[in-house]
Design brief:
heterodimer; A: 5 helices; elongated; B: 6-stranded parallel beta sheet; about 40% helix
């Protein structure tokens, strides 16, 4: 991740500056955090969201820099512009948080999520499931005589669409990783 | 440089290296090795409190009155959970304290061991940061880092949880070095925003400074710079409860405290101003009243070291993230460089408008010759103690608001009160901490009898260490503020807001080996206060006051600054159902 040149603690990137007044519209933002991979750091982030009543739509976390012990947390959240600004500022003041990036504001970004989906069925439904999987570029990672597990990668919308199509064809279980996201370009 | 020593010794060594001279604590199984090391040295004074909550509040009192971090040491389990209120109090008021807790040995963590609690889990939301130290080699660096985090940026409480085996084991001790941590909050404000603020200062017709605890936390230089700026511009200044003393109460531009029980002239100046300069305050709900009616026609500047304070409650036009002293220095520099301009004619007119509001004399009350009015008691206390080297702590409630209204503070760090959390039981242990830091000063805890009883066990501490703290209890036999709200909002149904079994405070004092003074006649008040001041030792002053006095002025919940109540006559039916759901 290339850090953007936003000083921690700065408010100059505030989305407020672009808006004449507070807006009440709910917005969906994808935030990327670089945090020290120390015990409890995820609890601090989650505790902030629950303690202050913010929403989490999706959250992923993994160490991305093994020598520097830095983890990247990607959070998809919703709220009014004021709430989104608060979330970013509040995240920024957690001591082990190094950087907070709002990918939704900072520029076009790529969002990907991986899901594995189990579909149980026989006959024509089974054939149809395979055909749709092919269209969605989902891979079969496991199969029995009456079931498939598909692996699909894409934006959350695409996975929603695929899962919706699979439902009448015998979808029984879905496991999703949550969103990972990166800014486009350099 | 590193040296080998046990974890317990490291704790004491790190405290010494951090310049700590006093620790407030209470021993227990999981901190015995540390207590052993305390026993073997004479550099750090340990004050044995009577309850862990008292240790943390005492550390807060020490920190608030010195600007240095306060330190508390408690054991695992109940020791740690008893510290939670103090930690939350310090978090809400941004007070730098370091709390050390013992923990069961690492190999027993998670086994529901005796006196085990998930201390870092419990205290995660009520500390600025906390650590569980799992190996002795990292203990000293964690200790140093803890002091760095507690005191830099927006100060706050930190906690280090130290398992007993980590205390016994030996490891390498490292001396403090300049912090290499990534946590280095921005101190200097953005010059472009500062210039914008200066431009606003130059043209403002009705400006007001609205200052808060951030000025105190920033250090004495911040108060000095604030005074210079206020006096050079001639702009009126008001302050939150937390910021009293940053600008002297005797200063000519002083409006008094603002907010729910703030002064009429201060609140109206906030409401009618055209430029509000918030210096280290956070638009708390006690200050703003109804948000959508808050100072509707002003341009607002906000200086705060914590970016999350900006635009949290009130949208501001000129946000400046930085340390108050650094920012004020730059504001002064830029303002002087641009020719020290203000719109003097209009500011003068604004001052005379404020003088008109001041004539309302909002702190007037009906005097009595039969009973002691609490306001009168505080006026006499002010008169008889203002020339002393005086520190005031308070509990929480009516007496706290009256103290803020009727006592005058000339310097920062002289007024220690629980603002954000509103912790009853804070004031007494805090006065113990203040007296430890200032052994020769006159330390008075202005209290209500209900709050005071919450941590009265600390009388043992005061007597043991011969701390001459004066407990000035305004005794109305009521939970005064609760009673006031029940009167105004709940149809005078006084549900559980009085005690039918109060102790005899004079006998109580004597039982602890202290002095008790009872005063119920206004005619005796001055002599009794002088007796309290002149007694060399802890005093419980039972000041029996009017039982049904209400605290005014008052902005009822859900109302705007210009909808203030000035006295009893105005209270009928003014608070609607929407207001009554607020606290």
């Amino acid at each position: 991740m290339t850090p953007l040149n936003i000083v921690k603690g700065s408010t100059r990137h505030s989305a407020y500056n672009l808006r004449p007044t507070f807006s009440d519209t709910q917005e969906r933002h994808t935030l990327a955090l670089l945090v020290e991979n120390e015990p409890g750091v995820l609890a601090r982030v989650i505790g902030l969201f629950s303690g202050r009543g913010y929403n989490i739509e999706s959250l992923t976390v993994a160490e991305v820099d093994h020598t520097g012990h830095l983890s990247r947390i990607t959070i998809v959240t919703t709220g009014t512009p004021q709430v989104i600004e608060q979330i970013k500022a509040q995240l920024g003041r957690i001591v082990p948080v190094h950087d907070v990036h709002d990918l939704t504001v900072e520029g076009p970004s790529v969002e990907r999520e991986l899901a594995i989906i189990k579909v149980v069925g026989e006959g024509e439904k089974r054939v149809e499931a395979l055909r749709l999987a092919d269209i969605f570029r989902a891979n079969v990672v496991d199969s029995t005589l009456n079931s498939f597990i598909f692996e699909i990668t894409g934006a959350p919308d695409k996975i929603d669409a695929f899962a919706d199509l699979m439902r009448p064809l015998g979808l029984v279980e879905v496991a999703r990783t949550g969103v990972a996201a990166l800014l486009r370009g350099d | 440089m590193t040296r080998e020593m046990t974890g317990a010794k490291m704790v004491v060594q790190a405290l010494k290296d951090q310049g700590v001279d006093t620790v407030f604590g209470y021993p227990g199984g999981a901190v015995l090795p540390i207590y052993d090391e305390i026993f073997l040295q004479n550099d750090i004074r340990h004050i044995l409190v009577r309850h862990e909550q008292g240790a943390v509040h005492a550390a807060e009192g020490y920190a608030r009155s010195t600007g240095k971090p306060g330190v508390a040491l408690v054991t695992s389990g109940p020791g740690a959970t008893n510290a939670v209120t103090g930690l939350t109090d310090a978090l809400m008021d941004s007070i730098p304290i370091v709390v050390l807790t013992g923990q069961v040995p690492t190999f027993m963590i998670g086994s529901d061991a005796f006196q085990e609690a998930d201390t870092v889990g419990i205290t995660r939301p009520c500390t600025k940061h906390n650590w569980l130290v799992k190996d002795t080699d990292s203990l000293s660096s964690t200790m140093h880092e803890a002091f760095h985090v507690a005191t830099s940026g927006r100060p706050g409480p930190v906690l280090i949880d130290i398992p007993k085996d980590v205390q016994f084991a030996t490891g390498q001790y490292s001396t403090p070095k300049p912090s290499t941590s990534h946590y280095q909050p921005v101190l200097k404000g953005d010059l472009e925003e500062i210039t914008e603020l200066v431009a606003a200062i130059e043209t403002a017709k009705k400006p007001v400074f609205y200052t808060g605890g951030g000025v105190i936390n920033s250090g004495p230089a911040a108060s000095q710079l604030l005074r210079e700026l206020v006096d050079a511009t001639g702009f009126p200044i008001t302050s939150t409860l937390m910021g009293l003393g940053a600008y002297p109460a005797s200063g000519e531009n002083w409006l008094g405290m603002l907010g729910m029980h703030g002064l009429y002239e201060a609140n109206l100046a906030m409401h009618d101003c055209d430029l509000m300069i918030n210096v280290g305050a956070r638009f708390d709900d006690r200050i703003t009243g109804r948000i959508d009616a808050f100072s509707p026609n002003s341009k607002k500047a906000h200086i705060d070291i914590d970016p999350s304070s900006i635009n949290k409650v009130i949208r501001v036009d000129i946000p400046i993230v930085g340390d108050v002293a650094h920012v004020l220095e730059d504001v002064l520099k830029v303002w002087k460089a641009r020719g020290r301009k203000t719109d003097a004619a209009n500011v003068k007119q604004w001052q005379s408008q404020i003088a008109g509001w001041r004539k309302v004399n909002c702190l007037a009350y009906t005097a009595s010759e039969k009973t002691i009015k609490p306001q009168h008691a505080l006026q006499r206390l002010e008169e008889l103690t203002k020339n002393h080297d005086r520190y005031i702590t308070t509990e929480v409630g009516q007496h706290q608001m009256w103290a803020a209204q009727y006592l005058g503070f000339e310097d920062p760090n002289r007024w220690m009160t629980s603002g954000g959390l509103g912790t009853m039981g804070y004031g007494f242990p805090a006065s113990v901490g203040v007296q430890m830091a200032h052994p020769d000063a006159l330390v008075i805890n202005v209290a209500g009898e209900a709050s005071w009883l919450m941590n009265m066990q600390e009388m043992g501490t005061a007597v043991q260490y011969r701390l001459p703290v004066k407990q000035f209890i305004l005794n109305n036999e009521r939970l005064g503020m609760v009673r006031q709200w029940q009167e105004l909002l709940h149809g005078e149904r006084y549900s559980h807001s009085w005690s039918e079994a109060l102790p005899d405070f004079v006998k109580l004092a004597e039982a602890f080996g202290a002095k008790g003074i009872l005063c119920s006649d206004p005619a005796d008040l001055d002599d009794a206060i002088m007796e309290m001041i002149n007694y060399d030792g802890p005093v419980i002053f039972d000041c029996v006051v009017e039982k049904h006095e209400n605290c005014f002025p008052m902005i009822p919940s859900g109302k705007a600054h210009n909808e203030m109540l000035l006295g009893e006559a105005e209270t009928q039916g003014v608070i609607d159902s929407k207001g009554s759901v607020l606290v």
